[in-house]
Amino acid sequence: MGLAVAQMGPVHLAEDRAAVVKRLLAMMREAASRGAELVVFPELALTTFFPRYWMTEAEAVDRFFERSMPNADVQPLFDTARELGIGFYLGYAEITPEGRRFNTSILVDKTAKIIGKYRKIHLPGHSDHKPDAPFQHLEKKFFEVGDLGFGVWNMDDTNVGMCICNDRRWPETYRVMSLQSAELIVLGYNTPSWNIHWNELIHWRTTTHEIVLQASAYQNAVWIGAAGKCGSEDGHHMIGSSMIVAPSGEIVARSSYEEDEVIMARIDLGLGQMFRDHVFNFAKHRSPHHYKLIVERTGAGDPLPTGD
Amino acid sequence: MGLAVAQMGPVHLAEDRAAVVKRLLAMMREAASRGAELVVFPELALTTFFPRYWMTEAEAVDRFFERSMPNADVQPLFDTARELGIGFYLGYAEITPEGRRFNTSILVDKTAKIIGKYRKIHLPGHSDHKPDAPFQHLEKKFFEVGDLGFGVWNMDDTNVGMCICNDRRWPETYRVMSLQSAELIVLGYNTPSWNIHWNELIHWRTTTHEIVLQASAYQNAVWIGAAGKCGSEDGHHMIGSSMIVAPSGEIVARSSYEEDEVIMARIDLGLGQMFRDHVFNFAKHRSPHHYKLIVERTGAGDPLPTGD
């Protein structure tokens, strides 16, 4: 299977959706011409990463949320997907008819049908205004925790799971999908190069991104395609480092630039099967009765007494 | 806190426990002299990695299992720990008075008291004889799945968790311990450089070992000390690569040789706390109701319907 990851350079506040969609279309055409059957776009791909700005929810909805999908702005993506016979993953800010707000991604098949929707569960950041911080991280203000669970959809005989950005740091994310026989997990992200909450070393921001993708691909015997935004959006730098990771945990394709860039790999789903048949034969090796705390506790608590 | 990891070179079939304990003592003394408060020894540290040989359970028990702990052979380790005021982790094959067999580790404090016991849960390998394989991996024949769960013990104001070898590849292992407020996870292992089950690339054996330790330390905001055996036991090569990993996911100490070798780090437990206060504030960010499949399914099954 041909998998493409379409990294995006910055989307500045001044750019409109039409300009962004034009860039996405160019990458979709490139991906298709290089043999991709699926192209992965970033989280909140249609706009700048607006949760970095303090504003009212009403203003955010007005400027940055999509009331329907597809809509007139993104229709060209659907039309071109159908024309080229290529599927895509797209992240965007969703507002429902009831006014609920989610950080959402969709999986669209090569007939341009939306076959899956995911709403981000692990929302990072805060909901209050931090006037002393150089920028905000207001996902907990603008979005609700996703209500759809971690889904897996069969697309052209491949089981595809989705998650978004911070979800990729949580091992539960991948495990719930691999227990639904996911073979490929796709995700978009916007990761600032600076952590506003504490003095985290800047290079850790890339290291931790790499190791969670690598280990999670391996531990769940899945391929992962991760598409980020990169470069500086109005002065706010993001890590980029979009990549495709094999079930061996190896990075098989990686972005090289801080701009729009398509990376590609021909992925062999049989490789994941080898790991699922052996070291990660879940049915043979897992012991769920020893894992109960994972669902019984939210935060950490005291050590439990052991039987000996 | 001073943490030492004592990697072991090979233990051949012909070596007796007295010779092995002498090597462990030398490393314990070196660790203490370098300021360690805890030294981590490998899995099944007292003998060769015997699950690679086909034999009856009775023969294995006779040659390789411990009927009590401490016993006369290992008493010098306990005496020296008390003398030096250093704790240790030790892996060994345990047979209970009822005749149950486990792949076990103990946590011993600096007064030489056993304060924790763990019995390996994720047993790799097989239970049948594979006469065409270059060697066996008979952990499923010689051991039962551990019955004590994943424990965490407070040792001198540090919460220490234990696991063994293959457990380190499973994200559930670490999560159950970090939900019990583990700050440090210690483990021993014997990892053959060749996979007898399928044609896994040899370098993956080390890569996957690294990335699971790195990602798990980060995802659980814990320090990890991992002690392996290395070199060739009677011609059977093991990966070594013993290491200490920080909560940032970075490898801060790593073995350099294929022989007995002590590596050290002064570990700052406050670093883990920074991650637990921010990106991995479990109480604030986890969503256990979306994780239920982790305990509801053992093997992978069909995708579930999502709500949208």
TrEMBL record, chains A, B:
Annotated InterPro entries: Aliph_Amidase/BUP, C-N_Hydrolase, C-N_Hydrolase_sf
MF term (GO), any: hydrolase activity, acting on carbon-nitrogen (but not peptide) bonds, in linear amides
Domain named CN hydrolase: residues: 1-269
Matches recorded under Gene3D superfamilies: Carbon-nitrogen hydrolase
Keyword vocabulary terms for this entry: Hydrolase
Listed Pfam families: CN_hydrolase (PF00795)
PANTHER family for this protein: NITRILASE C965.09-RELATED
Protein name: N-carbamoyl-D-amino-acid hydrolase
Lineage: Bacteria, Pseudomonadati, Pseudomonadota, Betaproteobacteria, Burkholderiales
